Each structure stands twice: as C-alpha cells, then as structure tokens.
Amino acid sequence: MYKSDNKLQSSFLDFNQPMGLHMNSENRWIKMADMIPWDVFEKKYKHLFKSKTGNVAKPLRMALGALIIQTRFQFSDRELVQQITENPYLQYFIGLPGYQETPPFDASTLVLFRKRISAKMLMEANEYLLEENKPDKKEDDNDHHNPPSGNGSGDPGKTDESKNKGTLIIDATCAPVYIRYPQDVSLLNEAREKLEEMILWFHKAYGVVLPRRDCKAARKQYLGFAKSKKHSAKQIRKALKKQLSYVRRNIGYLESFMSAGFAPRQKDIPTILTIFKLYEQQKYMYDNKVHRVENRIVSISQPWIRPIVRGKVKAPVEFGAKLDLSIDAEGYARIENISFDAYNESACLQDAVNAYYERSGYYPERVLADQIYRTRDNRSFCQKHGIRLSGPKLGRPGRETTKTDKQTEYQDNTDRIEVERRFSLTKRCYGMGRIVTRLEDTQLTSIALSVFVANIIRMQQRILSALFY
Fold first, then answer.
1. Taking a C-beta distance cutoff of 8 angstroms, is the pair 309, 264 a contact?
2. Would you call 104 exposed, middle or buried from its count of C-beta atoms within 10 A (0-12, 13-18, 19+)?
3. Does 460 lie in the same domain as 383?
4. Hey, which of 11, 200, 326, 375 would disulfide with 170, CB 3.0 to 4.6 Å?
5. Long-range CB pairs of 27-35, under 8 A, 24+ apart, other chains included
6. Interatomic CA distance for residues 278 and 284, integer angstroms
7. Which of 354, 336, 363 is nearest to 143 (CA)?
8. Can you give the CATH number for the domain in which 368 is found?
9. Is the dihedral of CA 357, 361, 362, 364 positive or negative?
10. b/e string for 197-209 if b means 16 or more Cβ within 10 A?
11. Are 360 and 166 in contact (CB under 8 A)?
C-alpha cells in the first residue's frame, strides 16, 4: 500500500532543526533536493501499488533519494543507513520532516527500493529532468508545435537541411558485473557442489537413501587441477571429463528423486534448470571440441549474464550488460539501448536520431560515432535527413581531400571524446565500472542510476557556475 505523506517537508524552512543545530541553506544537498521534481515522480510511483491494504510503503523521495546518495558515494547498504542517520543534510534530501537519531529504514529495504524503481522509470525520470532544465525550453516548445519540414506537412522524412541543429554523440560500452572469471572446470565444479547439497537435502527431508557421490575425490581432483600453474590442453580435457561425469551422475540422482514424486525446494528450481542447461552446453563443447555456444552461461547464480566481446587491450571480453549511450549538445547522457545479450550497436543509430527529433523537433546537424556505426544503411539514412555522419567517405581515399576536410575530421574526433569521458566518469565515480547487485532488474537499475546521477551532478554544477559568473 502507498500513501502520500503530507507531513514531509517541502522546503528548507519546513525542516525541523533541533535546538543548537544550524544548517546552511546553501548546502549542495539542499540545492539538489530543490532541483529535483519529487512531486511529479511520485505521481507515477504510486501507481505501482495496486493494493490499498497492508503496510504503508516508504515515499518515493526517501527511496530515490537514498539510491542517489548511494550511487554518488558508492556506499554499501549498511554504510548508507549509518551515513544518513548521522548527517542531517542527507536526511533533508530524502524528505524527512526533521532531524532524527534513529535510522529511517533498514538496510535490507534498499533491495526493495532497487526492485520498485526500475531502469525504465529512471530513464523516463532522466528524460523529464533534462527536458525541464533545457536552456531554450520555450523555443523548443514552439518548435514542437511547428516542426521543421521541407513541405510544411510535418513529415520527418522531408526535413529541410538548414533546420538541422546540434550534435549527437553515440557510442557503446559494457557495464561489467562483479563475478568470478568463468572457467569451464570451475563452473562444473560449482554445479557439482550445488547438486551435492540438493541431494543431501532430499536425504534429510524425505528420508531417501543417500547415493554415492565421491565428494572428497571430486574435490581433490578439482584442487589438483586448479592449483597447477599451467594447464595443457590435455589436462583441461581430462579435468572437464571428470567434472562432467560427476555432474551427470548427480543430475541422474535428482531426476530419479523427482520422478518418484519428491519435490525440490522452491528456491532450488531455477538453479536446477540452470545447471541442466550448463551441462548441455559444456557437454556439447566437449564432444565437438569447440569453445563457443549460443547463450553461454557464465554464472550459475546469474544465468542472464553473457560474455560481451569488446576487443579492448585491458579486457577483451567483459561480462555484463551492453548499452548505447548518447550525449547531446549540453553534455547530458541518455541510455538509448541496454541488454544483457550481445548485439550490433550500429542498429541503434537510427533510433537514437529519431529520438533526438522527437524531443527537439529537428534532426541533429552532425552525428559523431565510431567506425562500427558507419554502415551503408546509416550513411544513407543520415544523407536523407541532411545529417553529417563523422568519419571518412566510403572507398579509397581520393586526392580531392582538402585541408578543410581534414580539419573537420579532426574536430569530430576531438568532440567525440566527450562520450568516452562520460564512460570513464560513470565507471570510476558512479559504480558502472563494477555492478555489485545480484538480481537482473537491480543490475539494470544500478546502471540507469549511474547515468541519472551523473546528469544531476552535471546539472547542479552548471547551475552553480552560472550563478557564480
């Protein structure tokens, strides 16, 4: 159940300060709280709660504010609760009516906050916040009523080239998840250990005969392989064969138990299905002597994670969600596409350009992207709408390349660094470099929070700098 709390403070003057506590009204958290439209976000948030009975949920400002603080400082859940309890400015930011010495919520409640505030909600909130803080919002509103077009009909496919404005920068990256590096032998060993625990539970819960499992021998064989410094191809195949045999035998035990009418625990069912699929993939790769398989499982506890081939020197392959990030002329970021499955990012360029047109009323003057986006379809699409796509032309370089063309190409490459700078910022400072949440939805929420908080901090800095100058 959700209920709007009228007792929450709406301004700094409403915050109940204990006797002797003096708070600065120019504090960054007070300024940031006044900048975020909490009431608008709360109207959509309360629709998530269909029931009118049960415990009253925490307000949106407390939930989203706590997640913003956590993303900004990269606190753990328990450390975040302690910091909010000790800091009155953070208590004001999450909407408490006054300073209190008791924790406003428990650390485990943050998991519910991340589940309820999805990545889609954060992307919509990010779009609304950027739209409301545009410097030329009034001009854009007039342009939306009269969209630029060649024939005055409002057809986006017939836009006049002279009406194109601004720059759109787009690139793709991966938000790696904090998991152990997946090796086939270690994955099979983990699956074997989990199956042994389930077999032991069946024995204790239903009184079935405990079958032979060879736990000590299997563990000894795995440690002998893992502790060796170098592994030859023959040693790897030998270790894989042994672990596959143990997993196959344990799977047979579970199938016999379930066919006899004994049901596993509800929490073990997803793990069992994941292990069954993992065994099929590993058996296929072992029999066919290949190292690739479709939808390869790299984590038993998080089976939705896929390997993303990045081709970087430091990390050729990363494990996490892949996303396309776009940067507008003001330097604010938007997530154009996000998925745990690998995809070709060139397919996102046209959608990003169309989204730019929907929110501004005109197409960008230029699109800055790397080589993988410069396909023939994307080139013809940009040429049709009068957009200059960065990069050299197709074909062999000709002699007619002038000094101006070289300077333009150099300037495009220089301006495109902004998206790389944003990748570095969100990964170093806002947690996108290592996603530590363990659920699929909460991992996407953490990624969207990184972009959302980075935009808020940038927006606050620009407002403060404008006031200063």
1. no
2. middle
3. yes
4. 326
5. 27/89, 28/460, 29/89, 29/90, 29/92, 29/93, 30/89, 30/92, 30/93, 31/460, 31/463, 31/464, 32/93, 32/456, 32/460, 33/65, 33/92, 33/93, 33/95, 35/133, 35/456, 35/459, 35/460, 35/463
6. 10
7. 363
8. 3.30.420.10
9. negative
10. ebbeebeeeeeee
11. yes
**Residue that terminates a domain, selected from 117, 135, 154:** 117
Provide the pLDDT for residue 20: 67
Q: Let me know if residue 272 belongs to a domain.
A: yes
338 and 454 share one domain: yes
**Mean pLDDT over each residue of the chain, to the nearest integer:** 88
Other CB atoms within 10 Å distance of the CB of residue 385: 21
Tokens of residue 159, six digits = 């836009």
Q: What is the pLDDT of residues 26-66, one digit of tens each?
A: 899 999 999 999 999 998 898 888 877 778 889 999 999 99
Which residues does 214 contact at the CB level (< 8 Å), separation at least 6? 246
Band the pLDDT of 12: cuts 50, 70, 90.
Answer: low
Q: Copy the structure tokens of residue 382.
A: 């940009």
- The answer as to whether 151 is a domain residue is no
Beta bridge partners of 172: 324
CA 292 to CA 139: how far, in whole Å? 53
Mean local confidence (pLDDT), 179-205: 95
What is the per-residue DSSP string for 252-270? HHHHHHHHTTPPPPGGGHH
Are residues 168 and 252 located together in one domain of the fold? no
Residue whose entry in the numeric block shows the structure tokens 């970087």? 312
Q: Tell me which DSSP letter residue 136 carries.
A: T
Asked if residue 322 and residue 277 are part of one domain, the reply reads no
Exposed, middle or buried, 278 (CB in 10 Å: 0-12/13-18/19+)? buried
Give the count of domains, the chain.
3
The torsion region of residue 391 among left (phi > 0), alpha (psi -120 to 50) and beta comes to: left
Q: Which two tokens stand for residue 410?
A: 């150099």
Q: What is the DSSP string of 400-449?
A: T--HHHHHHHHHHHHHTHHHHHHHHHHHHHSSTTSB---SHHHHHHHHHH
Q: What is the pLDDT of residue 8?
A: 58
Strand locations in 301-371 (E): 307-309, 317-327, 333-339, 366-368
Domain range for 105: 12-117
* Residue 73 contacts residue 83 (beta carbons within 8 Å): yes
Q: Which residue has the higher pLDDT, 354 or 402?
A: 354
- Amino acid making up residue 410: Y
Which one, of 192, 315, 307, 297, lies nearest residue 254 by Cα? Answer: 192
Supply 314's token pair.
């430091």
User: Taking a C-beta distance cutoff of 8 angstroms, is the pair 307, 405 a contact?
Assistant: no
